[in-house]
Amino acid sequence: MKAISYWIIRRIFNFVTYTLIGMKVYGEEHIPAEGPFIIVCNHASYFDPPLLGTAVRHRLIHFMAKEELFRNPIMNWFLRYVHTFPVHRGRIDKKAIVESFRVLKSGGVLGIFPEGTRKCQGILGPFHDGFAGIAIKAGVPVLPAVVVNSRELPKKTGPVQIVFGEPVMPPADKKADKEAIRQFSEEIREIVLAMLNRHGGTEK
What is the pTM of this model? Predict the structure, then answer.
């Protein structure tokens, strides 16, 4: 029953994003058809997770989201229903890390917004390195993505776009030190920044 209900929710999201909003998706060919990977994306709006989740048509994304969103009972139920789990910001959250590895070991897709909070449209903040450490230790690719013009929804100030880049494999050494993790995190950020600037970003 839950699977059927989730399918209905996705159909509703498809109608809203593609028909009502007119969302355009580019680079779908870069989305792995199977196997675990991490999607790393900029974050400008509360609408970004459902937009990104809808754009990945044939895979289910398990999003990591800030713990504060789960304090409302109704929101807590809905977020967990759509396979989102909490993370405590500002400290190492072992429970969230364990859940991340569980998702990846089961062949799933992990969605992370590594800026940690929403930024103004076109601005890309510093990345937290957590996703890079998880990718290296799990040995899974990172799929860079950008969301453009989601900030002012439901008002439409420009075409909403989701763009996917090519997957990037992490360093092969799963015992990489903090500097190697930081460098891989920065490598992914530079890719996301270049994509964002090409499709409407402003931050250098």
Answer: 0.88
